[in-house]
Amino acid sequence: MNYSLVLLLADGDWPQFVRFWSLRDPAVRAALAGVLFLGVSSGLLGAFIVLRRLSLLGDSLGHAVLPGVCLGFLVAQAKDPRWIFGGALAAALVASWLITLIGRRSVLKPDACMGLVMSGFFGIGYMLLTRIQQLPFGSRQSGLNQVLFGQASAISDRDLWFMGVATLVIVLGVGLAYKELTLTSFDEQFAATIGVPTRTVHYLLMTLVALSIVISIQAVGVVLLSAMLITPAAAAWLLTDRLPVMLLLSVLFATAGGVLGLNASFMGRNLPTGPFIVVTLSGIFAGAWCLAPQHGLLQRWLRRRRHRLRAQRENVLKSIYLAAEASQAAGGTPPAPIAVSLARLAGYRDESPPKLRAALRPLVRRGLIDVAAEQVVLTPLGAERAIEIIRNFRLWERFLTEEASLPVDHTQAGAEQLEHILSPDLARELEARLSDGKS
Whole-model pTM? Predict the structure, then answer.
């Protein structure tokens, strides 16, 4: 449930909430079916758009359909869904062709090509929309300006039929070309080398995206429809590294955002649906961004915190060993058990005794050290780990000095960071390379 819906319920709109979910209004049923169709189509295609790093494409084609909508109205001189959708589809296809053509025949980057087409087409469309309002039959364009922000409650049965057919075509297209779409989305050059017709697959995807955008107009409008393509797929990408799961999550997020946004719009006395859907999808993305198990902000913070605490513990272990080593009159490896006084260790680390005792407590809990009679003693497990850390530091420091030809004073900081993450296999490899004297 999104934030807008919570506020509306808090205002006492429970009757509207119950009325919506009872589905007794034909307009609610039509709008609900429409956003479900939209969620399926945009969720499927959005995953491939995000993987191809063409997120601006949805926005570009969305703005590009506006002149097609206006031309369709001018031809029919009425708000005929057949001409409106036909004109929008034609404009979206022309725009996608122009984006590809400009990209192939110029030095411009894809984002610049999409920005050019988006701004140009939208400017033309808005001029046509203004002109229509000044024509004698312009009074019959009632609701035409809703293509900007959408109005799902105005979805008619003919609109719903068209949206259903278009969604079926999109699902079949993705299903039949799934392997080719997957290959070209992850590695287009490799796909071309094994005989995949990459250009044909690209135009197929552009056509399906154009079709999805056309059926999105009534629900969310041309200004906001890119959110239906990008936001659910982006949220799904944060939660999984497997494409089938990403497609499923993208569809689920898109349909959930559509339904909850429609519900909030209905409870707000038929306010424009598009903004409510976009806000809901943004909330879903924010949740995924914060709570994703691998790429989420919370997990990243926890990983950094765990690494920082581990590095602090291991630095204390290393200090205990080095302080005991330095206390030997003749130098060399300190005898077992390795021990050092608290006062000497505090001086070695330049820390106050209370701060040092706080740093030692996690090591005591893990069985790495014992503290008794003002002495810090490394357990066998602690001594083994301390020796490993020091060896990793010296290996990496030597590697940076000999292999990368860095001055010794430039290697200290890097070696101290990497000593905590150097795996045993990599440590053995470094040891072998340095002992052989090979690069």
Answer: 0.77
